[in-house]
Amino acid sequence: LDKAIAKLDSDREQLEARLTALARENKRLKADLTALAASKATDSSSALREQMNALAAEVVHLTAKLEGPGSPIAKALAVPSDARSGNGDRSLADRVRALQKADATS
Known about the structure:
By secondary structure, the protein is mainly α. The protein has helices at 2-67, 72-78, 92-105.
């Protein structure tokens, strides 16, 4: 009887250790999944933000073309600006200038 009780105690301890390890693994996997989901949302937001910036530059570029050389946009773009904003993205003015340059070479 003592041997059976000792075996059951040993089995219970092994099962508890396995359960603890699996619970830790489950917690880690949930944290990884949460981080991955947040990363995908950030990537998606960045791509959407880039598309919106490109679209805004196209709209400004086309408006400047329609308004002609006397356009206030042309005057604003004639003023030099920093090549990059604080977060590393190109400014709207820089994007429009790039479109104008590409338009002039084609």
